[in-house]
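Q: How do we represent a protein-ligand complex in a form that can be generated token by token?
A: Start from the inputs.
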Amino acid sequence: MSALSINIQLNTGASIPAVGFGTVCDEANKGIFKEALEAALLEGGYRHIDTAWCYGTEALIGEVLQKLFDSGKLKREDVFVTTKVWPSLWANPLKSLDKSLHDLHLDYVDLLLQHWPLAFDSDENGHPKVPKDEQGHVKFAKGADYLDTWKKMIEIYKTTDKVKAIGISNYTVAMMKRLLEQTDVVPAANQVELHPHLPQVEFVKFCQDHHIIVEAFSPLGSTGAPNLKIPIVVDLAKKYGVPAVDILVNYHVQAGRVVLPRSQNIKRIKKGFSEVKLTKNELAQLDQYGIEHPKRYICQDWGKGIGFEHWG
Ligand code: NDP
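Then emit the structure tokens for the protein with NDP bound:
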């Protein structure tokens, strides 16, 4: 069986495909992005797209979706689409969402995430995406509270048909506690960096205890896929006779998490991922590896000091 056909239930009751297609794209790969996404949807078996206003790929995704909807090869309800509100548009998530919907050629998204619990001092159109002062330090909006964005997202969720669910990304446990104390919608998901070098065991438990689905970004260790070389991952791949990438994907889906691998390599995309029934003990061993060898790959300067472990 393919890991791509596994679904998980959100706290809204909706179903989310456990494997989503990551859509960060380097400038150099933009030329093949549409072909890659089409292959993912038509041949790879992907039914979940993870994007964001800030990735600059939404218009390309919109072109592919429109083409596949028009040709009847795909229906809107066949595909789960997530987008995100970037901190430069923290004050106006509706504007962010409307721009995303326009570019994606969609009437609604299945999940809208607050990309970071941060507020940048940008203009009303969200530019620059990361404002900096003369010393190169990120400029944060004075007096802003990241929960203001979440409260506005709740309003969108309750009063429009533009989002089926709302969630968060890059929130720590302390931030989730504050959100749960001060607002009345439990996020459907929290998307964070997670892999066998960064298992975040207590964080994962907190989310599970509060019915917040954990979504794992940078599961391969981001560009260059360094996690494919983790010794225990290589050993398990040998044991099960599968490529190492299948172990990195099943580390999440077998534990009830969403995973968001990225590839713009058509051959890899078409291959997909096999389901590998890792035992509880093997999942615990993968966690243990990260407890002993912690490494975070995505450490942008705006996230410094937020409170995530192993930053930088
Ligand atoms: P990944 O961890 O998915 O790694 C991507 C890299 O792995 C690419 O270089 C890709 O190259 C390579 N790769 C993929 N499959 C294989 C394979 N089978 N063998 C060898 N190499 C492989 O990277 P990302 O950091 O992009 O994370 C994935 C997604 O998570 C993002 O695209 C985005 O959607 C989301 N994300 C969310 C964030 C947030 O703040 N919420 C932050 C970061 C990411 P190739 O293209 O050549 O296959």
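The beta strands are 7-9, 15-17, 21-22, 48-50, 80-85, 111-114, 166-169, 189-193, 213-217, 258-259. The pocket of NDP is lined by residues 22-24, 50, 115, 169-170, 191, 217-225, 228, 245, 260-265, 268, 298 (CB under 6 Å).
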